[in-house]
Write a structure and sequence with these properties.
By secondary structure, the chain is an alpha/beta fold. The chain contains 2 helices and 5 strands; from the N terminus they run E-E-E-H-E-H-E.
Length: 113
């Protein structure tokens, strides 16, 4: 497994931290991770290890105010913001990962309003 990080800016200028875990062979697909409240992507290294062992790459980013991303600790404006940021994170990697299909998403620990 190979792992790394990347940064990108939000529309309001905050720096977000993203993580990529890659399989050593040709990937079967990509899983896009959206972590839960009060968490960060670093907690998912064991999931990344399992997925990369069976041929999948995992990507994700620390939500605003979580982990190593900037912002008020533990605060994310709303669900739509999370989806917009997830899409933004994906676009940052799209050119290097565009040839890899299929793409799946995995989300955790978000309560309904």
């Amino acid at each position: 497994m190979q792992d790394g990080t990347f940064n990108f800016k939000t529309n309001d200028g905050l720096t977000m931290l993203g993580r990529v875990w890659q399989t050593t062979g040709t990937p079967k697909g990509i899983v896009n991770l959206v972590h839960g409240l009060g968490e960060h992507t670093g907690r998912y290294a064991h999931i990344a290890e399992a997925l990369t062992k069976i041929g999948y790459n995992l990507i994700g980013f620390d939500l605003r105010g979580h982990g190593l991303s900037e912002g008020k600790r533990g605060h994310t404006p709303d669900y739509d913001y999370i989806m917009m940021m997830s899409n933004s994170s994906w676009r940052n990697l799209a050119s290097s990962l565009a040839a890899i299909n299929p793409i799946s998403s995995m989300g955790t620990a978000w309560a309904a309003p």
